[in-house]
Request: fold
Amino acid sequence: MPKRTDIESIMIVGSGPIVIGQACEFDYSGTQACKALREEGYRVILVNSNPATIMTDPEFSDATYIEPLIPEVLEKIIAKERPSALLPTLGGQTGLNLSLELAKRGILEQYGVELIGAKREAIEKGEDRELFKNAMIKIGLDVARSHRVNSLEKAREAAYDLGLFPLIIRPSYTLGGAGGGIAYNKEEYEAMIQRGLDISPVHEVLVEECLVGWKEYEMEVMRDCKDQCVVICSIENFDPMGVHTGDSITVAPAMTLTDKEYQMMRDASFACIREVGVETGGSNIQFAVNPKNGRMVVIEMNPRVSRSSALASKATGFPIAKIAAKLAVGYSLDELKNDITRETPTCFEPTIDYVVTKIPRFTFEKFPGADPILTSSMKSVGEAMAIGRTFKESLQKALRSLETRAWGFGGGGAFGDREPRELSEIKSRLSTPRAERIFYIRYAFLAGMTVDEIHQITAIDPWFLHQLKELVELENQLSTQSINSLDAPILRSAKEAGFTDTQIAHLVGSRRQKIRKLRESHGIFTTYRLVDTCAAEFEAYTPYYYSSYGDENEIKPSSKKKIMILGGGPNRIGQGIEFDYCCVHASFALREMGYESIMVNSNPETVSTDYDTSDKLFFEPLTLEDVLEIYSQEKCDGVIVQFGGQTPLNLASELSEYGINIIGTSHESIERAEDREFFRNVLEKIALKQPVNRTARSPEEAYEMAGAIGFPILLRPSFVLGGRGMFIVYDMDELKRVVREAFDVAPGKPVLLDKFLEDAIELDVDCISDGETVVIGGMLEHIEFAGVHSGDAAMVLPPHTLGKAMLDKVREATYALAKELKIIGLMNIQYAIKDGELYILEANPRASRTIPFVSKAIGVPLAKLAAKVMVGKTLQELGFTKEVIPSYFSVKESVFPFVRFPNSPITLSPEMRSTGEVMGQAFDMGMAFAKSQMAAQPSIPLSGNVFISVKDSDKAAACRLARSFDELGFTLCATEGTALAIQEAGIPVSRVFKLSEGGRPNIVDIIKNGQVQLIVNCPKGMIPRKDDDAIRREAVNRSICIMTTLTSAFAAVDGIRAMRTKPLEVTTIQEYHQHL
Reply:
């Protein structure tokens, strides 16, 4: 049937900040939906709190609200915009939960808003564990035995009924299994139940029989208004049940199902989506199969576009979110054409003649004390995907795409050595699922273990293990060769199995270039195949490529000038979606300028790897070998390395050595900024100050230099992103404890020692230059004092405390530095202001993670302009020659995953730990800050009890803070030292016991009893002490607002005043930009 004409405007609720369990897959799906609906002529109203995504750029929606995702704010937007419909299925769990809440509160009915795609009843049936269980039983599908509980007493009864441990705990309405896990004994069980009940927004937990060791599958399914159902993609987990599917290696299509089993699962999927009642759109259905007897159970269903939908879309070339949006407005699958073939309708199920492997990316090193064991609670922060003709090839490509220093499955690099491991260590690492277990399977084979022995320990399907064994056998064969004995058959076998020239060179004791020359002399060339959705039955019109060997080359050269853009690879803390945003803008800019844009990236979650973002997409690892091959075959005219974060920048030097044309800021200029010695000379030349600093090449040098600089010292490795290995140390003992870690982060690179400017104000500046004209894009003042990584700090644009004279000084310094470094494109500079003096901390001649935020705050697409400048345009020609200073405030706040890592200290430091960010905007600074906290959650309370505990040097300021809270009508409590200072200032305060004092009730008791609404906790030193960490942990678990710096606490006071005296207004960024 044709699209609906009774709908004029559609509201889409986004997924909010990037968090573990809900990452940029939903930015990708939301962006697709916005494009698809506007294409059909509907007015699109988007609500999302995340400024880092391309989705919240003003050109993607008619009305873009970067506002907190809470029901009260959404109601205001609905009242203002009066949308005809709400599409709830494209904003992840957040969008779904909020849409359901709006329906429950009667807000949708009140304003005449229709839920499309999935009705309230379908959402409830898919999300409510008990309703879903009963629905599956009704249609004859098996489910795991389970009980829904809402108290510890009920949980004990459930455990007794279900029988033996282990048992699985799944808190209701949470993301990525947050708070859940596998309990192997009664003590673990009760602790996990209590934690799950606390984390669940509805105080409910599902206790389930344990299916650990069973095989796990996912089916991505779509349904239309004619009740036509199709399977888009089947996905098989490499890891058996017990590991969250987001943390498991996954493979598409499913490898080990027989045709009969697949058809049974397909039929079950269709029965499931029909019974739950998802009328139109995509759903993800998860199954478990007992390998011993074939029993198949339905685990769960997401009545929305899921985390795996992005993977399935990229794996097949079928744009699930785009089609889901069109189905929601009345189209049927047979009416819509497949974009890739342009001939087949979308009711044709995709068929693929290649294998796709996804491997998750973890950052446990950011969270000391975090449990690295993988369970049913998701812990990964990103993922890499690779495509190959075989599982072996795609696995090796995926492993090297992770950027964890692994070159593949053996053949050198991390975990690629051939040194024997103790059998006891191997068995221990096999028995417990961790990120590196895949590599220990290789060590097991090298140690002589059999497929059956490894299967008995891991429960990984023997088919996969046989594939890995064959890789090890091939590696063993290569290790016995020399470059002179390598013949064509073994070289071809190695290349078809995914071994790189680098791996082969390592195994035969040669060099990469020699291996390439040898294989090409044997006629073994890299070829590129098209992703076509139909196993080559129809011609593909979208140039979406993957590399392989032995097949015809499907690259179609053109005569246009070509620029390659290197993406950022898998998301990780320190290098996230902000860089993908910049890459997408670069592609848009190049296409507008008439260039052919060629994207290279390995991240399936993002918009940069959408098939229609660039003229050509190469889904490939971002290694020197892979990039050089594409550049050569496409005959590119240049490459952009400044937009994808540190990953492409790390390749810049070697790319230059190969004569690759790096457009924009030259490699030499990048090196002058990143090399400490060169940079010091640059600053001396233009008379700018730096903190006293030294460069150490060994721990011993670091100790010597620390004595000369004087403590406190900021210690940091060079050439890393996200503050990895950065520490503030206050004495020699602290330095000796952490210096080895700083050197290990970037092996072979020096470590930098800076005099730490305590209590300095930090300022981030993003600027753009064409070599002649320099324009400041934005100045962002940190709310926290120096010492908090800029990626974790709350920031304000424009600066809210610095005077005109200092800001003018910053402008002059920025202009001078950009001209001296000959910047062509973007640069980010970090300044510190202490005692009226301006210091430069560092300069990064690349796109920074604040570019999306600044662009939205000032209404200028900086990354797009920078890309145009890099290919020759001037800022004068582009019409951007003057700094934009908004009349409103924009506040960036960070979001942290501490709830996922219960044993890790909760602290802000020079090492970045946030996964995402939100934005608060208002014409009043206090209101903008309050909205940013509302968006990040938990919100600032407007009344109640405030607990204050600060170090001695902060007591005077804490008294001023206490007076502000007292004047606002809050009650105060504090530990002994802080309470005494507050009392002496004449402010009423009650004293509470520290944990270490032994008295009761202590502060943790009071928090658990719900008697504290706001916590201010600012201890001495970089790592919180035991008492402080217990306070912070309890606050995080119970979603209590906590401030760990006094500057943020004062900002909270301003926020409370604003919220009490001014109405909370909702404003689109398009409306804000009218005030510029």
The chain has a mean pLDDT of 92. The first helix runs from residue 25 to 39. The chain is about 35% helix and 20% strand.
